Structures are given as structure tokens and as C-alpha cells.
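ASSEMBLY PREDICTION REQUEST
Request ID: AP-0331
Submitted by: J.K., bench scientist
Number of chains: two
Total residues: 461
Priority: normal
Notes: Please return the full assembly, not individual chains.
Input sequences:
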Amino acid sequence: MPVLREPGARYAPPRVSALGLRALLLIGVSLGLMVVDHRQHELQMIRATASMVVWPLQRLVNAPAAAWEWMQSSLATQHALLAENQSLRAAARESSLRLLRLESIEQENLRLRALVQVEPREAERVQAATVLRVDLDPLRHRVLIDRGTRDGVSRGQPVIDASGVVGQTTNVGPLAAEVILLSDPTHAMPVQVVRNGLRTIAVGSGDAGRLMLPYLPRNADVQVDDLLVSSGLGGVFPGGLPVARVVEVRRDPSQPLATVSAVPAAALDRDREVLLLWYPARVPPPGAPETAPRARDKGPPR
Amino acid sequence: MTDGDRRSRLLLTAVAPVALVLCALPLPRLLDPLRPDLLLLIVIWFALMMPRTGGLLFAWAAGLGLDAFRGVVLGENALAFVVVAYLVHRFHLRVRMFPLAHQSLVVLSLLFIYQFLLFWIDGVTGHPLTDWARWLPVLTGALCWPLLAGLLGRLAIRG
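STATUS: Completed
Returned structure:
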């Protein structure tokens, strides 16, 4: 290296002289990346590669919590295990009983649907996924799950838990996928009040225990303790999944809209196990690329 | 490549992944918004003390790594990191002479610029976050600076 300096000198001048030029160049590259990534979503390859690179680090972050959980489960006392076993047995008995009733109702439903000539509902498929203990961003409600494109996960897929809707997948890598939770301030989903079928939109509030319904007029028929389910509009979530329960309705005479907030049915910030849902969508989600080529293969309908 | 270069490069490759991991380590909800931007602080330190090793390219790569880690728009943190690293490079001879408390003030303004750039990019890409909690890491980061600078300085001397 032809840099002249005294032997033993602690300070070495920066190697590059055209600092501003280099900074401008890198800023330009970043801007280009952002535009392409945000506008076109054409960086799937780069994103997939990047997510593969950070995947070991994310596993590493998850490791202490996973080890702690493993220790807890393997060092549990026999007494605790027995108690847990008993309560699980009771729960299983109860749900199998309910399942028996559900089966007969489903048969009845199929027959009735055939009578009124409505297409039967197609089967859904679910797959369990584990939520990694990785904090992605404190202000955005997103979590990382350990399923990716390798398991058939795609962008915009509904994620639920045992008690309700959790959110939907956004960035999907080969081994992991990001899930945007209902409570994220940028998330909104179409919902319906079970009691009267009133449709509206539930928006995340940035607080894991709260959703807002900001688009209801002051005289809308909504009450505290109303159950909200997904309405099936929008094409992301299937209809009829529990979403939240209304806890507060404020009608200010000077405001045209009511202030309604609800508590999510799912344990958004405590879930460790979630379910990914595949269901045959009637409405293709916006920007779904898979359906277009298939339609072209079949040729124009005659 | 001199011996010192090699040593500082080793330090860089050891410290950067650790910082990235610490950026995502699960914390209780209460402490989570207080988490300082450790990776950026390290980028600032290298740009300040070892400008030959921790150049703009390192800052850019670190930012891109954070983008991939957090799943935000690719290039967001990369751009902000490069801007901050450029400013540090530009004034590194002056800032190095400052006492630590004074340096912390400089770092405070740099972190503010970083958060403002993120705020701006978030707004443009349609994910505006107007929560006041977003500005907390600026304060905690500046408070962490003397500790981090002392630690990294020690590590650098020992090699």
C-alpha cells in the first residue's frame, strides 16, 4: 500500500478521497433498491437470499428463549405434568363432543346447500407454525414464523390461532415468513358484527390488546360485547373467523363517527403457536401472480 | 494491508453480527421501545475511529442487513446509515477531539437525523408511524455512547 506514514503512527487517513461521490453513489443505489422493492415487488430473489443470510442469526436470537422453554418442559415436576394431562384430557373430551355435533350439522349444511343449489364449501387446510422470539421492530407488530415458501406459504395468507384471527403473512422467505398482526397500525381487515351482519373495517391501533373500528357512523347499531368475525370480503381471510369483541362504544354528538374499540380474540402478543390457513379463495387477493398464467394456459373460454 | 488494518477488520467482523443479534433480542414490552440502535452506534464508532476499515460500504452493508432482518423496504436503513456515516467521515477529525460528553451530543444529533430519515421514508412508502415512542432510541442511543465507545476502544487496543 503506497501510503506514506511514519512507522507506529496511530492515525491512518481514510483511503478514499472522493467521499461525497461515494456517498452519493450508495444513496442512489439505496433509493433505486427502495423504489424497485416498494413499487414493483421484483426483488423476491434478493429478499429470499437476504432472508437466508439472516436466518441463522434469527435462530441464534431465538435460541435462549427456546432453550429456556425446553428446560421448563423437561424439568417440570410429575405433579404438574399430571395436572396438565388431566386438564388436556378434559378439554379433548369436550371438543370431541362438540365435534360430533358439528359433524352432523355439517352434513345437514351440505344437504341444505345442495337443496338451494349453492356450491359446497371447499375444504380448508391448516399447518402449525412456531413464532420465533425475535423482535423485528418495536413499533410495528410483526412476528417471524418458522415456515416459508418451502412449506408452501405465500404472501397474504391468513394466520389464526385457536381462538381467532392473528394476522396475515407479508414477506415470505424460503424458511421463514413475516406475519403482520391485526394490531399493527398499518393493518386493516374487513369484519362483520355477528349479531346483525353490519360490515365495517377493523384497523390496528399499535396496541396489541386493541383494535379500532373508525368507520362506523354515530348511529350505527353496534354495542359493547358484540362479536366481530371476518366478513370474507377482501379475499385474504375466509368469512366467519372470530376477530375481536367490542369493548367500548363512544358516541360524541359533535362527531359524525362513533369511536368503537375492540379486543382481539387471539392472544396476539402471547402466541407461540399459530396456524397457517389455506382455503380456496373466491376472490383472488390483489397482486396474486399464480392465477394469471394458469388461466392463460387453458385458453380463452368459448 | 497493515497489521492494524487486519486487526480492526477482525474487530469489525466480530462486532457487527453481535450488534445485529442484539437489535432483535426479545425484550419485555416496556423496555422494547427504549432499545438503542446499537448497529448504527457501531457504524458511527468505526467511521469515527477507524475510517479506513469502517467505510461507507460497511455502513451500507450493515444497513441492508438490518433491512433484511426487520423486513422493511430494502434500502431504507441502508440509505440512512450511509448518510450518517458520510457525516461522521466528513467531520471525524474534529469530533474525535471532543470529550465523551460532547461526543454524545454529536451522536444525539446523528441519531436524530437517522430517525428522521426513517420517519420520512416510512411516510413516503405509506407506513407512517407518528408514535412519539419512535424518538426514544435517539435519547437512549446517545446515553449509551460513552459506554460503547469505552468498550470498543478497549477492544481495539487489545486487538
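REVIEWER COMMENTS: Confidence is low (pLDDT under 50) at residues 1-6, 288-302 of chain A.
SIGN-OFF: pending second reviewer
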